Amino acid sequence: METRANYVLIGAFTLAVIAAAFGFVLWFQSLHTTKQRSPIRIVFEGPASGLRNGGSVNFNGIRIGEVVSVKLDNPRRVVALAMVENNAPIRKDTLVGLEFQGLTGVAAISLKGGEESAPAVPLDEDGVPMLTADPSALQDVTESIRATLQNVNRLVADNQESVKNSLRNLETFTAALARNSEKIDNVMLRVDGVMGKADSLMLGLNTIAGGAAGGELNLMVKSIRELAEDFDKRSGALMADGRRTLSDISRAVNNFDRNPTRVIFGGGSSSNSQAAAPPPPPPAAAAAPRAPNGQKRQ
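^ that's the sequence the OP posted. Answer follows.
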């Protein structure tokens, strides 16, 4: 029993420590948050269209806080309470206005400018800093929105017939798609088949270009190269034989030009021609000695 009671005490103490740790973390986080942000009251002397709880508070376009509450102080005055970061450089001369985010119509409080040497934001009767929005800025925003809406309305009015025709064309197109849905499905099936064949063709080309055995295309190119090299060798030998044959023919033509008889009758005809040739004339007889008186000796 004593051992069991000790276990219960240990468990209860452990749970208490865990709960205290969680409580401390939550308290420290809330304290840290409270120190990081402080309230500020924004007064709008006129309408604040689109401003709602949870809206952003931006300083020079950077979010520094959010709107906590929005209420009517009187029929012409709107008061918004926001929580902003303590390090935000908000001064007495900071300009306050509204800015709209996109085309959703949700407004955000816009804070701009202010001199660094200007005094701090004045406090209201509750001790909360309070700034009053610039009516001219609000008027400019309202006028800009109104002008934009008027331009959109004018654009739609001027092109009303074109918009109607576009809608009719779109309706006709969708109706045609609905009527030909089966044909479109068949076309898509054919396209899928063509894509499958294309994939198969690409795989086949890949196999031909390069596969496990080096690729059929590589083997084909290698065979063509070997055939070209063999043809080159044979053509070289054939050209050499042709040159030798032409040389022999040229030599024979030259021999024919120099001695056609030898070419026609062969080598023996030359000796016969020499035998048949007439002998050279005998040398002239020696002159007889003359007598001293100029007469020939008998």
